[in-house]
Every structure is written in C-alpha cells, then in structure tokens.
Amino acid sequence: MKPIHAVIGLCLAIALAGLAYWQLRDPWNAMNAPQAFVFKHAQILRAEDRSVPTDLEEEFGFLLDVLYEMQRAVADAGAEGYLLADPDKGVVTLHLSGVEATAPFPPVEGFVDFDVTALGVPPTRISRNGAGAIIESDFDGIGDGLVISMDFVPAADVSTQMARQSALAEEHAARIAAWQDELVRVRAQIAAGPETSGDRWRHVLPGWRATVLLPDWASFGYSPDFPRTEFLDPVDEQRKFITYAAMPGNGQEIFAAEREQMLAPSRDGVEVLLDQPDATIAARIDAPYTGVFLTAVEGIDYIIFVRTPDLTMIREVWAVAESLSDAPLAMNAALSSDFDALGRIRERGTLLEVSEEFQDRFAEAVAKQFAADALISRLHQFTKHRLDEGTGDVFDLWGLSDLICTVAADDDAPLSTLHEAFMRDDAQTPDAAGFTEEHAEFVRSGAFLTGDQGTMALFPKIPRSEAQWFEDGPMRTVGSEGPLYYLYLARPVGQFRQVCRLAGENALGVRAAEQIAMTLPVPDVAEQPDWVVRDMRRYWIASDFGSGLYQVLTEDNGEEKVVLDSEGERLIDREFGYTWDLPEIEAFEAGSSSESVGLWSYDGLQLLPEEFSDISERKGEGGQPLVRTRREGGDEWQDFSVEELRRKAGGE
C-alpha cells in the first residue's frame, strides 16, 4: 500500500469516528426519522444572555402579574401542543392552539425563526437543547428585554396532544365559519354609513379650535388634555374613544401608522370593513372592532381612535369624526325647556337628586342674598353652589357646572343683560373639563403649529369671543361664549328675581342642572323698603349695624365709609375712615382713624367731638350707661354719662 493511501484511510477513519462522536453527543444529528417532542415547562428569561432574572418586581412593578399571567397562558397552551421534527424535509413544525408554525431544522448552535408572519404573534425561535429543543418567544407589548422560553423533550407517543390539536383546529374552523356568517351582517351595517340617529349636541374640543357632535353617552374623561382627549361613558366610566390633535402632516403619519397596525396579519386574518383615505374600520374574530379617522380643521389634524366590541358605537364614533368642524355651538334639543335631561340620565341608570343638607345650605345662602345690605352692595353679590357636592359626587362626568346665583330687579330685562356682570364678578373661567386657557392660547398664538412646547404661557389672558344668544327672555336665556354653553334662569322672589347661571361644555349636563336648580327651595324673604329697590347695587360694599343703620363704601377701592339711616339717606353729612358699633349705648364711634374718633347716636346726634380714642361702654353705679375714653394722645381716662351727652347734644 502506498503511503498516501494509508494517510487517506487514516483521515477517513478519523472523520467517521468524529461523526459517530457528534451523532452520539447531539441526537439531532443522528435523527433519521420524524421525532416528536412534548412540552416540559416555561420560564421568563433575559433576552440578552438568557439568564433567569431576579429583579423583575423592581423593574416592572404592578405589570409583573401580567407577565406571569402570560407565562401561565403559554404553559397551558404548551401542555396541549407538541413539536415534530422531520429530518428528511429539514423542517420542524410546532403544533400549538390548533395552528401550525414551521421553521428550518435548527443548526447545531443558535436559533432559527419560525414563520409566524401570518399568525400575528411575536417573533418565535427554536434551538437544539441536547436531545430536546428550546422555543422562545418575545413578549407582546410589555416585557422589553425578556422572552418566554419553553422546553420540549423527546416523546414516543403524542397521540393525546395530536387529538387535542385536531379538536382545537376543528373548533377554530367552526368559529371562523360562524364569524364569516356574522360578517355578512357587519358589512351591511357598515355599508349603511355612520350612525347619526338619536340626539347629539356640539362640544368644543380642548384647544378651542374645533367642535364635534357627540351622542349623549359620550362625555369628557376625568383629566382631558390637549392634544390628547379621552371620552368616557358617564355610566360605566369606561373609555370609549380618543381624539388627538397634531400639526399638519403629522396627523397623516399617525393615521397611516395606526392603520398599518390595525391591518397587521394575524392567525385568523383581518377583515377590512372600511378603508378610505381618512377612515379605516377593521374587525378580527374574538376581538373588538377598531377604527381610526382623520379630519383637518383650522390648520390642525385631528385623529380619532376607537376600539370597542359594539358595532353601533363604531358607527357612532364614525359619525363623530365626520361631524368634526369649525362650526360654532348652537341651540339644540337638550337645551330646550321641555327636554327631560334628568329623565334621559335616569334611563341610563343614574339618579340625580340633591340632598336635604344641600337644599338647606342653598336656602340659607339665598336668604342672605335678599338682605338689604347685600342688595345695595356690588361686592359678594354672587353665591356659588356645587351641585356635585349635593348629589354624592355623581355629576363629575355628566359635565354639570356650578350654580352661580344673584339677585336682579323684577323687570322685563332679558337675562343676557346680566351676562357681563356675572363674567366680571365670577372672574375665573367657569369650570369645564379640559378647557384650560393655557392650551387655548397655545393654539391661538400659533405655538402649537411650530411644536414649541416651551412657549406655553401659564394663566394667559385670552380675548373673549362675542356671546351668542339662542333664546333670550326675562326668565330664561340660553347661549354660548367660547367653549361653553350658558344658561340663565330666573325665579321671582319677593320684589326681585333670583337669577342663576349654569355654564358647561355638555348641553345635556347644563339642562339637567337647570332642572335640579328649579327644584331648589326659594325662601320667604321680608319685603324691602322702596329705597333698597331704588339703590340696588349702588354701593361697593355695605353692612348693617345698630338699629336699621348701614355703613357703606361708595367706591370699589375706597376707604371712606358713609353711614346711612333706615331710609337710605346719609345719617351724617360726611365720610369716615373708621367706625365701630357700640350697641349697648345705641351709638357708634367714628372718625378719620381709630386714633381720633367722636361719638354719634343711632339717630345722628354727635355726642363727643373727634378728639378722643379708645371709647368703650361700661355700667356706672345703679347701672347707668357710661362711656370711658381719653383724649387723643392723652393718658387721663374720663367717664361720661350717655344720658348727659344726649341731653347736651339735643340742646337741653
């Protein structure tokens, strides 16, 4: 034998020995017939190094339970499935949840991907693991940096698993068939177009640029914001749809990205019910309907997202999207005086009634408003009543506003004439969900369109828009200004009218609040003298003292007080910087300051000149009334008989 042949023979022997070694070491290489594998267990691993994490609770917090629930679901599905490796075809097939996924025969080292494109599941891979296999899958949506790893081990008999997978496949086929039948009805409803039946009323979206027609089940959420605004159903407080404002062009990109996600492939496929340049609606078996809509208004793109199992709601939100425009607020059915908003809300499962305690507080506050000193003053002429506090805080999502009340003359003047007085004295913009001035100014100034968040001013002064009145009379007025509906109602009380204002973005809530307001008690009030009616709101502030006397400030920022008698005339023909009532002697001290005062009786007699300080009441021997005082700057105290002072002042 030639040496070369000996060398070749030796090399061949070594190679055959090596092959035999690797076949024994890696059973996959020795596989010459299909081999089945069954699930052993599942665990969560780090994707980076496939180590078991020890700090998941710190990293994921309350989401950890979600991760573990997903792990349990995978384990339950794995226990019913199996893996089949076919060396002749060079493929492995995973049978899980009634469907199949294939991958090339795994290499000696490393992972190879399953083809799951049509299944709509996260990327899934397989690798050899001794005689068994490891299949790992990324988490869907959460758990970045983690994978779910499943161990499969060889099995001689998978007949039970095969039967279960066959049954699951049959169940799945039956669901698909039923779903296809259901799609006939679904497509017919979508073909009918947006759902516009029932009452709808226009709302202003945060940013104050666009308005939208909403059905009565939609209300602003707890913390509506700009550019993202959630709409809830006040009954179940669940989110129904979202609007999002974007700069021109960005809205189209957001719409396209959302559409792509909606139409992504899945195991059961996706049914495209509507696909237009500005509207897409899709359906999947055993999943909510999804929709995305795009509308441009006043240079801003608005995207509306909805995900719901209710097909009618999908069509209603479609109608909401089509109603989005720059149309102003207008009169609607909910604002009419014969509309039963409380009944409508009651039909939806919420009973709105104010408590007796609230009614008592309201009656007490109203009675104070009809006192003479309150009627002749301009300051503090309004009372504020939170209806949500009176009804157990059930009003939040119905958009009911505070009730602001005042007193007006009993004449035929339309209530719109009082609007400016309300707006001046109720300086804050009426409470309304999500309508912060910061966001409105951010849009109005053009800063939003440039994307400059740093220019958002705190507490900006926004120019008011002109009020529009839909109905205007002496007892009821309805209109709008800016983002809010305004409703004024009047009730006769004595010689006056009690006038209350409601303001809110939700017409249904405004009308419901009006119905509640009309049931609140009206107290019996004393008849006021003619001069109180004549001088109503004449003074900046007034307070009563003594026996039918009043001290008033005539100017908004003045400090000089005038004393009026019971007929509304000046008791003393001068003004004072300081007054102090001394009711036990039926007199009061007054002067330019507390350091230099005189003494006057309730009937206007000057008992002491303005040369004293520290006047006080006391009783003398026998109980006779005295005043003790000292002259300005002096240290000597003097007692004066009140009766003697009266005689001298009266010229006796």
Short description:
By secondary structure, this protein is α+β, with helices and mostly antiparallel strands.
Account of the protein in words:
The chain has 652 residues and is of the alpha+beta class. The protein folds into five domains: 1-25; 31-154, Lipocalin; 200-327, Mog1/PsbP, alpha/beta/alpha sandwich (Protein Transport Mog1p, Chain A), CATH 3.40.1000; 345-531, no CATH class; 542-649, no CATH class. Mean pLDDT is 86; it is low at 1-24.
Shape: elongated
Strand content: 25-35%
Largest beta sheet: strand ordering: 4-3-2-1-8-7-6-5
Specify the structural class. Answer: alpha+beta
Helical proportion, percent range = 25-40%
Give the tally of structural domains. 5
Mean pLDDT: 86
Please state the CA-atom Rg, rounded to the nearest Å: 41 Å
Poorly predicted regions: 1-24
Helix count, DSSP H or I runs of 4 or more residues: 17
Q: How would you characterize the largest beta sheet?
A: 8 strands, antiparallel
- The count of strands amounts to 32
**How far apart lie the N and C ends?**
164 Å
Give the arrangement of secondary structure elements.
Layout: H1 3-25, H2 27-30, E1 35-46, H3 56-60, H4 64-79, E2 82-86, E3 91-96, E4 99-104, E5 112-113, E6 124-129, E7 132-138, E8 146-155, H5 159-191, E9 200-204, E10 211-215, E11 219-220, E12 228-232, E13 239-246, H6 250-262, E14 271-276, E15 279-283, E16 289-297, E17 300-308, H7 311-323, H8 341-347, H9 356-369, H10 372-375, E18 383-385, H11 387-390, E19 403-409, H12 419-425, H13 437-444, H14 447-450, E20 468-472, E21 476-481, E22 484-493, E23 496-504, H15 507-519, H16 530-534, E24 541-545, E25 549-553, E26 561-564, E27 578-582, E28 587-593, E29 596-601, E30 606-619, E31 625-631, E32 637-641, H17 642-649
Antiparallel strand pairs: 1-2, 1-8, 2-3, 3-4, 5-6, 6-7, 7-8, 9-10, 11-12, 12-13, 13-17, 14-15, 15-16, 16-17, 18-19, 19-23, 20-21, 21-22, 22-23, 24-25, 25-26, 27-28, 28-29, 29-30, 30-31, 31-32
